[in-house]
Design goal:
This protein has 260 residues and is an all-alpha fold. Helix content is 62%, strand content 0%. The protein has a single domain (26-95, 148-259), classed as Methane Monooxygenase Hydroxylase, Chain G, domain 1, CATH 1.20.58.480. It has helices spanning 5-9, 11-15, 29-58, 62-86, 91-98, 110-118, 135-144, 149-159, 166-169, 181-193, 195-226, 238-242, 251-255. The protein starts with a helix and ends in a 5-residue tail after the last helix.
Length: 260
């Protein structure tokens, strides 16, 4: 029998995954579930693309990296746009089923934590959200102990003639990215002398700006919905989320803006 659209995409399985917990079902709980499941699918794709970016950088594949960042920044715009849909849910609608979330929380999203770690925003304390021995902890810990996109970017720059400082080469990969003036000087020279590198750098900045926008929009959506209440699952809520705002992925790219 010929493969059908539904079989290829496993549509029946997919549309059976939205299991509302409220009884009788609250109308907006389905919206809440669909939005967050869609986010997890986009996270899966982005992690797939970031793995390719790492390979592109270490293989000195400029145009491969450019293509990947074009896709990634477009997906990021989609993540931001989905919040417009979520914000059609009123605070009262969310309250009607919020208790049914019990101990579950977005803080437990292993893929989002992978997303942060692969981009170099590594925080060891975030591992506490995943029980020892769980598949989620295994995945997140693998990302914590692996080189980030930024680390592979240094490989790319080195192959382009940039001298990478020893303190960067010897940095523990489980620590977050830190800005470096020597890297900034190299980026500035790349902007001024190599237009193809400037295209890549701007795409990377686009993605960075997009993830900062998404974090801001997410914070405002949560604040709009629950105010200063404690987050679901006992998470710290809006105040904790605000602490993550305006933290760049590629700090050196932002640091050279005033020189261009």
């Amino acid at each position: 029998m010929a493969l059908t659209y539904g079989e290829y995409l496993k549509i029946n399985d997919l549309i059976d995954l939205q299991d509302v917990q409220s009884d009788p079902p609250e109308h907006d709980e389905l919206l809440f579930i669909v939005i967050h499941q869609a986010y997890e699918l986009w996270f899966k794709l982005m992690l797939h693309e970031f793995d390719k970016v790492c390979r592109d950088f270490s293989n000195n594949d400029l145009y491969g990296a450019i293509a990947s960042f074009q896709r990634l920044r477009t997906v990021m715009k989609t993540l931001v746009g989905q919040l417009d849909i979520l914000e059609t849910m009123t605070p009262m609608s969310f309250t009607s089923f919020r208790d049914r979330l019990e101990t579950s929380s977005g803080f437990q999203s292993a893929q989002f934590r992978e997303f942060e770690f692969v981009l170099g925003a590594k925080r060891l304390e975030m591992m506490d959200h995943y029980p020892a021995g769980s598949p989620e902890r295994t995945r997140v810990e693998r990302r914590l102990r692996a080189r980030s996109v930024v680390d592979h970017f240094y490989d790319f720059l080195e192959q382009r003639g940039v001298t990478i400082p020893e303190e960067i080469k010897n940095k523990d990969v489980a620590l977050p990215t830190v800005p470096n003036e020597q890297i900034q000087d190299a980026l500035f020279q790349g902007y001024k002398t190599q237009p193809d590198l400037a295209i890549l750098f701007e795409l990377m900045t686009d993605l960075d700006e997009g993830q900062q926008e998404w974090r801001y929009r997410h914070v405002k959506a949560v604040e709009r919905t629950i105010g200063n209440k404690t987050g679901t699952g006992g998470s710290l809520g809006v105040d904790f989320l605000k602490a993550s705002l305006f933290q760049p992925i590629f700090p050196d790219l932002w640091a050279v803006r005033h020189r261009l």
